[in-house]
Amino acid sequence: MPGYAGLPAAARYRTLFLSDLHLGAQGCHVEKILHFLQTHEAENIYLVGDIFDLGRRRPQFWSPRHDEILSLLKARQAAGMTLIRLPGNHDPCLAPQDTHPHSSLIPAHHDYVIHQAADKRRYLITHGHCCDFWLGRSHLMSRVGSYLEGRMRRCAARHHQPRQSGFVSGFVDAFNSLLTWGGLIEKRLVALARQHGVDGVVCGHLHRAALNHYQGTLYANCGDWISSMSALVEDHHGTLSLIDWCGAPLLQAAEPPVSVLAELEQPEERMA
Length: 272
Description:
By secondary structure, this protein is an alpha/beta fold. 28% of the residues lie in helices and 22% in strands.
């Protein structure tokens, strides 16, 4: 199939995993999301939570480009692509069926699904907020966070800084790092994967792209489309890789190393 008008021929994968698009939020890089989807095709696409960030019924930051993204996904689904969306803590509703006029175009499924790769390995797919502390699981707190970030970006714009302000993005990244200090959420997600008897977990939520092994269990984080602009891809041999918005490779999954970090050799903390 030739590429879209003005674009190169699309790269083809078995599976694409994308998380934290935050469509409707002021910090969303909608042009890069659209470019990525136009130049990358797959048999399966998992939208791993926080695809929307819609605090109002009529979002302030919604453009025809946002509609193009939804139309492209729906067209490929109609052509036979498998499209699965999982709920995240910033999505309009945490229930499997939300009714927001935009997000209802791609209904959310259950909180997690199991994906079997081409090499027969099985992965737990979930957004990741289920392993937060109780305060982090609050949909209200997520809405408050989105509101404050939007106010910061509008303030930066009034001072003639770009809408995608590096200062604001850096502050948000630093705050997310503080909330995830010590890797406890990652360890909880790995423990959750082991409880399900699978080979690894694919998630988002933390806005930090990653592809690591914890004592033989794969931890893969898709990243986000506010800061990292990255996605996880599976080729037709089952190999997982992280790529950026224009398709450049970031990381590729390898076999678990013979020796692992000392902190990962310690017993996992029990799930709360």
